[in-house]
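Notebook, bench 3.
Goal today: get a predicted structure for alpha-L-rhamnosidase from Pedobacter alpinus so we can plan the truncation constructs. The sequence was checked against the plasmid map this morning, with no discrepancies at the termini. Length recorded as 912 residues. Pasting the sequence as submitted so the record is complete.
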Amino acid sequence: MIKRFIILFLLITGFYAVQAQGPKLTALKVEQLVNPLGIDVKQPFLSWQIVSSKRGITQNAYQVLVASSASKLANNEGDLWNSGKVNSSESIHVKYSGKELNSRTKCFWKVKTWTSIGESEWSENNFWTMGLLYYKDWPKTWIGFDRAFPWDSITNNSRLSARYFRKEFESTKGIKSATASIVGLGLYELFINGKKVGEDVLAPSPTDYNQNVKANTYDVTSYIQNGGNAVAAVLGNGRFFAMRQHEKPYKIKTFGFPKMLLNLHLVYTDGSTEDIETDDSWKGTANGPIRANNEYDGEEYDAKKEFLGWTQSGFDDSKWLAAEYVQEPSGTIEAQMNENMKVMRTMQPVSITKLSGGRYILDMGQNMVGWLQIKVKGVKGQQIQLRFAESLQDNGELFTANLRNAQNTDLYTLKGGDEEKWEPTFVYRGFRFVELSGYTYQPKLTDFLGKMVYDDIKTIGTFETSNLLINQIFKNAWWSIAGNYKGMPLDCPQRNERMPWLGDRGEVAYGESFVFDNERIYTKWLQDIRNSQKEDGAIPDVAPAFWRYYSDNMTWAGTIVAITDMVYRQTGNVEVVKDNYPAIKKWLAYMQDRYMENYIMTKDSYGDWCAPPVTIEAGRGKSADKKYPSALLSTAYHYHFLQLMMEFSKLTGNEADYMSFETLATKVKDAFHAKFYNNKGFYGDNKLTDNIIPLYFGMVPAAETEKVFKNIVYIVEVTNDGHLSNGLVGVQWLMRCLNDYGRPDLAYTIATQKTYPSWGYMIENGATTIWELWNGDTAHPRMNSQNHVMMLGDLLIWYYENLAGIKAGIPGFKKIIMKPETVDGLQYVDASFDSPYGKIKSSWKKDKKAFTWEITIPANTSAEVYLPADSQKNIKENGKSVQQADGIEFIRQDGKNMIYKVNSGNYTFQIK
């Protein structure tokens, strides 16, 4: 079960202190970004950061020690790997190159560096553990109940109860360590001696279970007690037992009934070991309190059927069934390297309003993704119903038309007596409003707590400006992006879809990467896409392919190219290119063989998906679910991907492919211009997207570039009265195209519009997340999510790379380009981004007298800094002439900018 392509990224920062010959470095500890337990990569990649406020810190060499015990590491004995002193400035993606690692090996490691100001101390000790590397390391048997029970309903809207399993065992020796490895499908919660193991929810990450299944590993040493012990698990349906069983069986995949595989490995102080594993000695039941759990429809919980003490030893399970051996899923077991979901934020509702019939409407004040915890008191058998929606009708009732047939309803049955507290276990939904019914009294706001759930991904970017609308758009974007991270990037969290559509994330993921540490979820998603590829090369529109959509188009399937490029450029991880290169090459060959005619890619499916109607009234009541295929777009994207593959071929050592990609790209470019260009200066039907795409992709001949861009400006300024008119495809390139061709002011105009169509229009009409449609307030509700990310396009990229001026000069940010756009209308921009090497900060402000810019460049990097001045005489750094400042070297003048090489450190520039 060893995989070829997973990378372990342990980001650490040691407490660095140089020795006597140099000053002391500032110390800062950074938390590890992934769970280092149970990986199944024998040569993980290690990374570290040097943190210092001093200027010009560079790494000249490093030494890594990896040991089999903490004591050996403390004695500087790298019995697994001692890299020796390596003369290199590399501090990210350093490959472990020591002894071969085996299952359950615990690896302790640390690093020291030699820098431009001296030799560091050793970092703090860190560790990772190897998981179960081979199929034979796992238990022989999966357990479950491969059938429905009388109270279940296997219909189109299936209601299947949770499965409960438990086993008791004795521990009479001292415990040195205990490790639990579990594959619980579709979802699980694990308990030992009455305590839930870990803080994960809705685990593990979803996959196409016919291809691969994800295993989670936990250190449970502290959970084990002397004497009697109990290990228990409850299994939910998730994506394994599909939400819709009979709706479209030709389209919707389902994988079977919930099942699990578990190994609890005990190491005793006397050196002996014991394994508690899934077999028929376990006891199980489906007749528990979770009567139904369906991601689309909700969870039904009957507290009368709770098992008091079932997760502890001594519980009477004599009436439970013997666990049954069940067929294992066909997918390969793999260690999960991306983060699981957790409750990442809690929030109190802001109001509660009484409706007729003893119902109440609860307002969370924010469209969110997760669930509601309730406190309630009542009589035995009383039922509380919770219905969820994103918005209200004019009459104050829930608006549910845009949910399609997703019921989004929880049902809680009271056991009666004291106050009861409950929240669902295996479902989530997108909602702002909740209709409450079944109460015999007026509930209070303090009876409810909203729990926002998404992958345990760190927010790594901040962004604020003097423009309140831009700030609110950024906030709305954060809520949409975070809420739709669900072990895979979803399109939406509320209706009967919630699918990982490829097209929605083509370039949007790039902007997300400035806000969230999304490398691992997108690396996992790229694997999902590869796993869904057919033998002939076809790539689906949805991956994992829970829906069998293989429409063959460049813009959706080509997301595998865009995401590969994004991960590489933002992290410097060339392995992601190596992993995906064969699949991309195979897919391109498939598309060329089937659909390329005279170098025109004739096949497209969606066109510029969800382009805005000409006016808000023109789209009133109309569905946006219409396709307008465009050979112009498919051919342009084909050219763009060929350009990327030229670069990828060199990165992966496939130089022999370079010439064929280059030759084909030239022919595609020439054929495109001949077929789609109008000598009046526009392409295709003269839509904004038709012109932006070829211009930004470099397909326009130099002699025609000015003409095409003037036409783009005319469309925006005159035809659209300062607004965009792009759908999903065009909006991915809009802001960068305007900016890079000299009109950041026009990009700013679009970004700050409050009238239709614009991001500001959404906010003016009550949005707290990003809508699926520009006309989301008037379109037909069938396809009208109020929490989507696809229409963000390249807005966040423009925020960071252009307004803040933070851009990777080379992949991974070892060299940074800092070039802010000081557009009229903005008085300040304050942004930061945690790059692989450390925090980059850009904070500028301007008034009539001066421009002040504070920047932070992390150690072991440098930046090319563009200062908006026409002479060095007008620039000071921290009160000194820039020519006298340390760490700064003049490079050249470029128009109205003076360009400098600036070494790591903190700087304050003042320009009159």
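The first strand starts at residue 9 and ends at 13. The longest helix spans residues 655-676.
Flagging this for group meeting.
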